[in-house]
Amino acid sequence: MSRSMRIAVCGAGPSGLSQLHAFESARKNGYPIPDIVCFEKQTDFGGQWNYSWRTGFDEYSEPIHSSMYHNLWTNLPKECFEFVDYSFGEHFGQPLTSFPPRTVLLDYIRGYAERNNVRQYIRFNTVIRWISYSDEKQKFHVVVKDLRKDETRSEEFDYVIIATGHFSTPNVPYFDGIETFPGRILHSHDFRFAQDFIGQHVLIVGNGYSAEDIALQLYKYGVKSVMLSYRTRPNGFKWPHEVKEVPLLVRIDKENVYFRDGSSYKVNAIIFCTGYVHHFPFLDDNLRLKSTNCLYPPDLYKTIVWVHQPRLLYLGMQRFTLSFNVTNAQACKKENSVSGRPIVAAGEVGLDESSRFSMLDQKLVLEHQIIIARETGLPLILHCRGHSLFRPLFDYMSSLLPSNHPIQCSLTINTELWFIPLDIVTILSTALTVGVAILILLIILIDKTCHTVPMMLIANSCLAELICASDSLGMSILTLRNDLQQIPYPDSMCIFRGYLSYASCAVMNYSFLLQAIYRYVIVVYPNYLIFQSTRFQLFFICVTWTFGFVYPIGFMSNGNITYDVDNQICQIPLGLSFSMIFVAFCIYTIPISIIILVYFKLVRYVKTMSNLVTPVNTLIRARRELNMFRRIVILVTILVILGIPYITFICMSFFTSPPKYHLRIACSAVYVSLACMIIALFQLTPPLKISIMKLINGRLNKITPTVAFTIGKTNA
How confident is the model at residue 29 (pLDDT cuts 50, 70, 90)? Predict the structure, then answer.
């Protein structure tokens, strides 16, 4: 490619930075790139996320670009704002809350820009005044102004990429009598501080995301009342008493506002949360996109190429939830286009494609909860009146990229051949554990000979295993369904199941510790009868259950338990973090280490007793309890051996990244260990086997006479 080719990129927000990154990546990979110039009106990266306390105009008398308000937090999970090849975890080096404040997003965007070395292409404090195209020269004529130097100049470019966004020009509807309103009228674009409205009655026109967020901020900062005027239907949320939804505003008469249902109220301020419009005053009329925000803007092939002039490219003009991911893909497509691989000829776009997405846009209904998969960057629950919008979005992003592109690869949901057999093994193992655990609990409950303290402790362990296995069974069934359908969807209970797995594992491990300590005290301190009492053991059981179910609450509330798409599980990500170290030591290492330590102390004690003059009954009892203790050690040994993969991956994660499907392998081994442990528990507990035989023999005794009588009668 000739370096004489020049490309103008308008804007250095997330979209513009994605485009610059695409060119810089091509350069680093050895491809020739054209001369790139990015014009940015503001003083730094960030675009819309570059907050300014000013409203109206800046220090250069230019319209304020940012619509950020001071206390804005994202209204979508951070994964919706994540670039495909640069995660929040990579930037910050630690887990983040799902809905971070605007300052976190700005820091992340700036880090993305610096990491990709794109500052070299950007001219800050430079505003575009006019862009036109000369058919004679086959060039764009671009007029720009250096705001600091107050100098205007014109340049020529072969391509122009518009990445100025579409959230800067407010859409302000007119209502009859609005000019008579004596109070403050503003659009959410100019909203900055909720404190400005303390003690006032505020009307918000609109009931979208911004309207909801601003209403709650006003409520928190002490307004007297907030009304949200909806156009079609109320959201139906359970609002605080000071916040309510009202029908569409129809007219204004001084401080009185009137609504469609005939009601009226007095208000002190009106805030329009009515969206934004595409506005490109710097573009010649035949280059200008004229459309309201929609899913698939008209006259843009693949939402990118201006079909009336294919050298004009728009970036990020559609209304996709996953804007950063989509602009990554679009930027890659544009880089291909201007690097000698055209993506469309003028007029190529067909009506069917545009109208298909237009109809989707009209029917789009978002569920109240959108769950995001970090690795794919795609929506997991996104419905269009019963029809999934996932596939059109997936197809759209895939169509922008070559099959071997890393972003394309990240969109692919892989299902390995060994997934399904592994899922079946885990389901069978956990189902077997659940069945045997229920059987043991029923035996202990029904047979009065099992109503002893040792059997109560065994029932405690069995109940913990039952909860753990039931939780794991639910995860395994969901994973199998997803693998069969090749989708990475968690359900709404995923995070809770992750919490429950940590809680039940803690209770299970400490239940074995209670059994071990009980056996040790019986032998070493036989006169401590209070410790052997049912009430005392119930107290310790309650303590372990309370601890088990309380400690993971912090992990769940802080967002530490997340959905791992590759491994199809909700869990704390492996790595050198406080939460992982706490789980590894307090839940596994400490109870198991104490069990082994107590076991060796008991072995040593029994050997000492054998060498001394000890009553026969006491020695026999000590050896019997030691044998029972050995059974506990066997159970723990099974857990440790089959937990080796999990332990290995935890240790590995402290220093490097574990294999891609590490948790699938590790958790499957743990699920199998549950089945082995419950079977061993049954086999190594004689009272359970005796009770089973009693039940079986009892049934046979009832059936045998009937059979004998029938045979005798037949023979007769």
Answer: confident
Kindly report the backbone phi and psi dihedral angles of residue 226, in degrees, each rounded to the nearest multiple of 5, phi listed first.
Answer: -135, 130
Quick: pLDDT tens for 642-671: 778 777 877 777 777 667 677 788 888 888
List pLDDT tens digits, range 310-364: 899 888 777 654 455 555 555 554 444 454 444 343 334 443 444 444 433 433 3
- pLDDT of residue 202 exceeding 50: yes
Look up residue 677 and give its two tokens.
């442990």
Quickly list DSSP for 39-71.
E-SSSSS-GGGS--S--SB-TTSPBP-----TT
Which of 28-32, 111-115, 290-294 has maximum average pLDDT?
111-115
In CATH terms, the superfamily for domain 6-168+278-411 is: FAD/NAD(P)-binding domain (3.50.50.60)
* 50 vs 313: CA distance, rounded Å: 24
Residue 166, pLDDT above cutoff 90: no
CATH number for 419-689 (one of 1.20.140.160, 1.20.1070.10, 2.40.300.10, 2.130.10.10): it is 1.20.1070.10
Which DSSP helix (H) or strand (E) runs through 139? strand 139-146
Q: How far apart are CA 7 and CA 15, in angstroms?
A: 15
Encoding tokens for residue 417? Answer: 């051949």
Expressed in angstroms, the distance from the first to the final Cα of the chain is 106
- Alpha-carbon distance 457 to 440, whole Å? 12
Question: What pLDDT does 296 receive?
Answer: 67
Residues ≥6 apart with Cβ < 8 Å to 656: none
Question: Which among 426, 417, 547, 534 is positioned nearest to 483, based on CA atoms?
Answer: 417
Q: Could you tell me the residue ranges of all domains in the chain?
A: 6-168+278-411, 178-272, 419-689
* C-alpha to C-alpha distance for 171 and 231, rounded to whole angstroms: 15
Quick one: tokens of 463? 């109940």
Give the whole-angstrom CA distance, residue 87 versus residue 112. 9
- C-alpha torsion 72→315→168→38, nearest 10: 100
Q: Which fold has domain 178-272?
A: FAD/NAD(P)-binding domain (3.50.50)
DSSP reduced 3-state for 154: strand
Put the strands of the sheet holding 269-272 in their side by side order: 184-187, 269-272, 201-205, 225-229, 243-246
Pairing of strands 184-187, 264-266: unpaired
Nearest alpha-carbon partner for 676 in 410, 425, 360, 325: 425
- Of the ranges 83-92, 646-655, 707-716, the best mean pLDDT one: 83-92
| Residue bearing tokens 């503003």 | 186
Nearest to 139 by CA among 340, 5, 301: 5
Q: What is the rounded distance in angstroms from the CA atom of residue 372 to the CA atom of residue 495?
A: 13
Cβ-Cβ contacts under 8 Å for 396 (sequence gap 6 or more) = 302, 303, 326
Torsions phi, psi for 359 (to 5 deg): -65, -40
Q: What is the 3-state secondary structure (H, E, C) of 350-402?
A: CHHHHHHHHHHHHHCCCCCCCCECCCCCCECCCEECCEECHHHHHHHHHHCCC
Q: Which of 201, 255, 245 is nearest to 223 (CA)?
A: 201
DSSP 213-241: HHHHHHHHTT-SEEEEE-SS--------T
Where helices occur in 654-685 by DSSP H, the ranges are 662-683
Tell me how far apart the alpha carbons of residues 646 and 679 are, in angstroms, rounded to a whole number. Answer: 22
Q: Quick check: do 178-272 and 419-689 share a fold?
A: no
* Rounded mean pLDDT, 283-295: 80
Question: Can you give the pLDDT at residue 343?
Answer: 39
